[in-house]
Amino acid sequence: MQDSAKLGERVGYVLKSSYPSDVPVIFPDSTFNFGNFEYLDKQIFSSLSEDSLTLDSAVYWISNFSLDSVQAFRMPVFEVLNYDSISHFPQPATLALTLTIDEIPEELAFEENNSYLNIPVAFNYPYLIIGVSVLIVIIVIAFLIFGKGLFKRWKAYRERKKWRTFISNWEGSMSALVKNPGIQEADELLGLWKNYLENLTGLPYKEWTATEISIHLNKPEIIKDFRKVELIIYANRVDDNIQEACDNLLNISEGLLEEKIDKIYNHD
What we know:
Layout: E1 4-6, E2 10-20, E3 25-26, E4 37-44, E5 48-50, E6 53-64, E7 70-73, E8 77-80, E9 85-88, E10 93-98, H1 125-179, H2 183-201, H3 210-217, H4 222-235, H5 242-266
Parallel strand pairs: 1-10
Antiparallel strand pairs: 2-6, 3-8, 4-6, 5-6, 7-10, 8-9
Helix pairs in contact: 1-2, 1-5, 2-4, 2-5, 3-4, 4-5
């Protein structure tokens, strides 16, 4: 084996044995206890026999991970008997540890450097948690104080948005009815009006007759407006005041909208 090696360096250990040819001898395998050394590999050479003597040899590749300055190492060969074996050891081989770290000088040399070094500031998570907690408390308090009013405003906003959509559709349908007073146009206008009132109030306006609607709204005059539109549907005749009848129906729906918004703010 070589005299010295670095820590963890691959080292070859040569093991030879000369013995009578009729004596059974075996070499250690990877299960052998290598002590402070780590087994890496094994290279076996062919036996050489001459004059009733046999010469065997093998190279064991090992590495040292001990920090001791000198390591002693040896491996036996085993003479096999009937029920036991005899270990034959050679003289120990020594391996010195080669250090690769330079010696530390007695006096350390310091390099002067007065330039500003920017040290990143760690994020303060406790402050973040406190800030988020305070924000949540403020939001909860604000909701308890102003939440009901905000909810009412949101409901009123939704109703006005539905009204704007209805007005847009109503103007288109009424314009089509005035220009071309046909059965389809008249039926579409009444259906649009009843559908909006049903969504606004939650009552079955689409199933009610003109008389039932007038009774519920307590507006008997609405029957005349319905008749002017229904005259087109059932008799295919156009009343001269059809525009006025449509305006009256629109005014009624707008009045119901204002009643609901007033109820949202003052009664809900």
